[in-house]
Task: structure prediction
Amino acid sequence: MTDFRKFYPEKQSTELCLEAMKMAVQGTKVSAQEFHGMVNLCVYSQFADHFGDQLLAASKIHDYLGFDPIPNIEVKTGGATGGSAAKTAIELIASGSASVVPVVGWERMDEVNTRQGNAYIASAACKDFESPLGWSYTAYYALMMRRYLHEYHPQRETLAKIAQKNHHYARFSPFSQLPGDYSIEEILNAKVVSDPLTFPECCVMSTGAAVLIFCDEETAYRLTDHPVEVIGIGAGTHTLRTADRRDMPILLLPNETEDTYKGRSNDWPGFTSFLAARFAARQAYLMAGITDPVEELDLAETHDAFTVSDIQTYEDVGFRPYGRGAEFVESGDAYLGGRLPTNLSGGLIGSMHAVGATGLFQLAEIFWQVRGQWNEIHDDEELWKRFGKTKPTDFESLQVPDARRGMAISHAGTGSHVTCIILDGGK
Amino acid sequence: MTNQRQEVKMLQGLETILLKENFGEAIPEEYIVRENPRTIVHRHTYGGLSRFFGGLAESVLWGTVCLNQNCKWSDIWLPPRVHCPDCWEAMEWVPIDARGAKVYTHSTINLPGAGFMLTTPCPLISVEIRGVCTKFMSYLSKFGENEPYIGMPVKPVFQKDNPTYTILDISWVPKNSD
Result:
């Protein structure tokens, strides 16, 4: 993985992807040359050609990495591109058609200014009926947030605590773009982008790259003595336009029954929930045999593009029933030391959102955690220096003790695509 | 006959702007960052949805409804769809009766993305309309203190003069306004 920056003039996308690939392979028992001979196919993960202004950039990167004539494909599902690319690689391995598939994710979001960047991202909303109304996803999530506050009445401060937590955890990551310790007052009194969302409650816009290597079990042990197993995958979709979501009965998770929502009168999924997230999580839980995610997972990475999308996702993936997502934060469950620490990476709010790399960044952070390797990476003075940063003097270990299972949620648009991947590091 | 060689010359207009800084940060001298300007025009068709955008210029808000008797979904779609997503049959166009329309949710946009063609602050709203299964995204073009609010009664207004043939041709105002 590279670090993530607002602006990265020192390196082209090819260089960033090579650095991320090199770091991934250096973590194995094989050399770069040997690795070239093992790969069957590469999956490339980039959200928008607009940003890098280079169609078929994957081909350029594939060549730069020296993988020709091995085939490659590029996967695109908006903000969920990283998760979808990883899922595609996993399915290729599971099908038996490949034994080693690296997934290379990146985004070069620094060629345009932030206003244009927001407009490019909002090009992934419906161009006819939505995009001209804001040219900004912050506005579309603000609509959801207003409705969420109206229907469920969480404390406004609870949402700000999500931003506070993730900016804080980003302080201990050499990869992070926007670390910081903010008071709740500072977050709530910051400039409002689109009411009620303030600046620190919105994700960053980044340039950087991340790489993961997926392989079959036999090959995994040729690469490392401690591989991590994929035990559950799921994906879901829903209408690109939030407006078009028809009311329907709640899709129940293994830890819910019809009684869980007895007497409920709010629309579902309405503007407060994501059918795609619930559909994805349900599949992954069934595959992994998980019946109570808070008890059976050790950590999670959610797609905290905005504070409100995070609290919505807690409910979609069953950390709390609908309407009670705030409890997940207020109980302390979401923090290190809680029952299911979430976004210890710093998330999209504190660390990075180089869109095509994001889902892979989340999985990489879980990979290190469930191998008990978080300190080895994040506490490494040399890595901080390589990125031109100084490790904080009050550095804290965010390694979850005895972490074994972690889940990553990769999410697009206002929930148009969501993937869920569960990793198990074994005992 | 002499084989006279032709020359290829650079056309005028390729302006060179090298950046010294970006996003408030100085660019290290050894790296070249140049501006690549773009002006692009797309020719976008509304296809079967043309009736909707033409309707706005005539002060009519059109939706669509599936009349296939074998299809269970009979609510109106707004934004309209030419085809029913359930049975794939062409739907019927119906004018929307916006009496009773109210704000379902809202936000006030202060910092929009590039290309936003409305003034700010701009109240973005989703409108709930009886008989319509969707929540229509639009904006409030007239608003006072503490407006909009969830449940606020609103009525549509149309850009009849110089229509843009975009979704910006319809907006909403408080129901009790002139």
About this structure: Residues 47-174 of chain B form one domain.
